[in-house]
Amino acid sequence: MAALAGAAAAGAATGGVPRNVLFIASDDLNQSLGCYGHPLVKSPNIDRLAAGGVRFERAYCQFPFCGPSRASLLTGLRPDTVGVTTNERVEFREHRPDTVTLPQMFRKNGRRSLRAGKIFHMGVPGGVGTPAHQDPPSWDVSISPPGLEDKSVGEGGDPNPELRNGLRMQWVKTADDSGQADTAAADQAVAWLEESRDQPFFLGLGLVRPHVPFVAPAEFYDLYRLDDIEPVRNPPDDLDDIPAAAKDLRSFLWNNMGMSETDQRLALRGYYASVSYMDQQVGRALDALQRLGLADSTVVVFFGDHGWHLGEHTHWQKMSLMEESVRAPLIIRAPGARGNGRSTRALTEFVDIFPMLADLCGLQAPAELEGASLRPVLDDPGASVKDAAFSQVEYEDRIYGRTVRTDRYRYIEWRGDGAGEELYDHQADPREFHNLAGDSAHAGALKELRELLAPQWERA
């Protein structure tokens, strides 16, 4: 009865039409998308979602690693609170057995809660197709489609064979998408949408691309000519003013992972092709929403679980606290939102997504949530709900880093081995090349940012 009452209340809050949610997660996706201004990447489906929704230019994950980021977003709790700060220990219910997750909230309120693909943490490529870590209490139906991943047949390359699967910048150009988990996940999502025209739902579609290995059909590789791809250029002394702790955090990801310039171009092409293949699956779900008459009653959320370096500061992949690693794409299309079709520079954290969806859908959010609803920004993209965004990392119980991003500055503090500080002025230095932590002209800003970050350390 409580679930039915919740559904009825939500229906009343949305003019008699129960709100649905299509919640689309992409793995290791940065802002390499057409709608974010990338000059090469073809992402027509995500671009049209952005054209009809609100595109967040400054959305930040709480931890630039898959397991901690997703656990934080899906519980609305910061990593220290939820107790997940590594991919090796992601079972948050060991620490907080009674936590209500985002999909679980919808399930408790009469929505059918569905998952296809990677929503909570899933190891890629080894965990693809397994149900591990997907939190059974969150879902009515939970499916992890299998995928060939690095076993896919096709033209390919592997510039880092000494690294384990999931870290190597391996790429595979296949004849078609047969045997790929993302195609199967989109197939399942479309089938569920066709079943759900008369039943409210929360549908999580988790896509594993562009996570390595870069597996995509030839049609997407063929969109990108190697001659058109230019590796990132960094100043020769770029790493000289970065604290040792930052460079010792997965040190093999720096110095371009030992890749030649040709290998960097090949890796970039693999990443771009994987993004375009993933974009096609997003488009299939969006097309089904429109075809089935569900678009006007469905909130669509699309996000990448964290950022991803593509050679900035000679760094590749994730696990840094610089802008490219902690900033991620976030696009929200809420029916009737006055800000649809616009972008926002409002500072946003992933912990804000849970309370926003509860707010939009007329549901009572758990009292413990640590974010702020983004609903005011959806109606007025010039508005803001916070003045700072916080992210953190830790590594091998010996390196701890935390960062705060304000409108003007990024401040990073490292503790443990190789401790130090970083301060970047985004007005003058948006690519974070010049560490101003030792510059007396910025002593006042440094003091203010230390004080702003201090409570985050105290939480730990």
Provide the descriptors you would attach to this structure in a database record.
single chain; 460 residues; alpha/beta; Alkaline Phosphatase, subunit A; nine-stranded mixed β-sheet; four-stranded antiparallel β-sheet; disordered N terminus
Give a verbal description of the structure.
The protein has one domain (2-382): 3-Layer(aba) Sandwich (Alkaline Phosphatase, subunit A), CATH 3.40.720. Helix 2 packs across helix 9 and helix 6 (181-195) packs parallel to helix 9 (261-291). The protein has 13 helices and 18 strands. The chain is globular and about 65 Å long. Mean pLDDT is 95; it is low at 1-18. It has helices at 2-13, 44-52, 66-75, 79-82, 102-108, 181-195, 218-221, 244-248, 261-291, 323-326, 353-360, 375-379, 443-459; strands at residues 20-26, 54-60, 112-117, 141-143, 155-157, 171-174, 201-207, 214-217, 298-304, 309-310, 316-317, 327-333, 342-344, 348-349, 389-395, 399-405, 409-416, 420-425. The longest helix is centred in the middle third of the chain and has 31 residues, at 261-291. Strand 17 (409-416) and strand 18 (420-425) form a beta hairpin.
What's the layout of helices and strands?
Layout: H1 2-13, E1 20-26, H2 44-52, E2 54-60, H3 66-75, H4 79-82, H5 102-108, E3 112-117, E4 141-143, E5 155-157, E6 171-174, H6 181-195, E7 201-207, E8 214-217, H7 218-221, H8 244-248, H9 261-291, E9 298-304, E10 309-310, E11 316-317, H10 323-326, E12 327-333, E13 342-344, E14 348-349, H11 353-360, H12 375-379, E15 389-395, E16 399-405, E17 409-416, E18 420-425, H13 443-459
Parallel strand pairs: 1-7, 1-9, 2-13, 2-14, 3-4, 3-7, 6-8
Antiparallel strand pairs: 2-12, 5-6, 9-12, 10-11, 15-16, 16-17, 17-18
